Amino acid sequence: MSILITGSLAIDRIMVFQDRFKNHILPDKLHILSVSFHVPTLDQCFGGCAGNIAYGIRLLGGDPLVVAAAGRDFGPYADWFDACGIRRDGITVFDDHYTAQCFITTDLDDNQIVAFHPGAMERASTLRLERFVPEARLALVGPDDNLAMRQHAAALKAAGIPTVIDPGQQLINFDGPSLLAMLEGARVYIVNDYEWAVTLDRTGLPEAELCKRAEAVIVTRGAEGSTLFEGETRTDVPPVPAGQIVDPTGCGDAYRSGLLFGMERGLPLATAARIGSLMGALAVEQRGTQSVCADLAEIRARHEGAFGPAPF
Predict the structure, then answer these.
(1) Residues near 201 by Cβ (< 8 Å), separated by ≥ 6?
(2) Is 3 helix (H, G, I), strand (E, B) or coil?
């Protein structure tokens, strides 16, 4: 059985600004903002939330199934998926578009400025999940074309597939009612702490009420770990300290890969979230979004050092 993942596939161009944005952006001049950051390094890598999550799941030994839209420049990315053993039969290539492109600039405080060109992702609403649903044991609806996200979430819930809802960068494009529709009946609603604040603001509901709409809510908090809400129960999941902080790009997707892997194996959510913390730490230690090269034995050893014997 597969873990079905919908969301973006993108080619990431990652740059590091060797200073802090706050030293160059004047708050009282935001209405006439004009800045240029010198970035001496440029790394190009394969990314997009769906691709990043699938990579982490495969690294753990899971079976990810990506359903996504790609463009005419997808060839090298397809070869990478083949090399990683990630199936591609759920990916549709649109020759009249480029694959989505993401331009990420990170400063020394790990703040990021991102420009995103959706490309073929804008055609994702034409994709249908019906032929993949019978083999899916679990699914995630990740950042994607807005209509596609709503269609996929509705189809998966209607089919009775436990579904993780991860609005991510697309959260800004959802109003309160559409967010509530996504949340309702989800197995897990997962966001970072800023996105959780936006969710509360957009829906106008208090935290306790909002947590009742999904079976569980997970709020990730970076180096402070994450918080799991299941009904009225709150569990604080500790972080795994990174050996070195190289690049935070993609660490949230890595967390989700560990979470999904644990969920698919029937582990308690708190245990699955700990695997997520571990995968996030491994991602932070590398530059790029699909760069972790630890084998399963190494991942288990890191888990034992942080939490005790690995349950996988």
Answers:
(1) none
(2) strand
Q: Could you tell me the pTM of the whole model?
A: 0.92
Task: Tell me the Cα Rg of the chain.
Answer: 19
Comparing CA positions, the residue from 70, 13, 47 lying closest to residue 251 is 47
> Which residue do the tokens 């161009």 mark?
13
- Beta strand pairing call for 217-220 and 2-6: unpaired
Q: How far is CA 30 from CA 27, 72, 245, in A?
A: 6, 37, 30
Tokens of 178: 């559409």
Domain boundaries, the chain: 2-22+41-307
Output b/e per residue, 109-137; b: 16+ Cβ within 10 A: eeeeeeebebbbbbbbbebebeebbeebe
Could you read off the pLDDT of 69-94 as tens digits, one per residue? 999 999 999 999 999 999 999 999 99
CA 8, distance to chain mean position in Å, is: 9
Q: Is the pLDDT of residue 64 over 90?
A: yes
Task: Quote the CA–CA distance of 228 and 10 in Å, as a whole number.
Answer: 29
DSSP 215-268: S-EEEE-GGG-EEEEETTEEEEEPP---SS----TTHHHHHHHHHHHHHHTT--
Tokens of 73: 């420049």
Q: Half-sphere exposure of 138 toward its Cβ, with a 13 Å CA cutoff? A: 21
pLDDT band at 248 (very low <50, low <70, confident <90, very high): confident
- Active-site annotation, residues: 253
Q: What's the CATH superfamily of 2-22+41-307?
A: Ribokinase (3.40.1190.20)
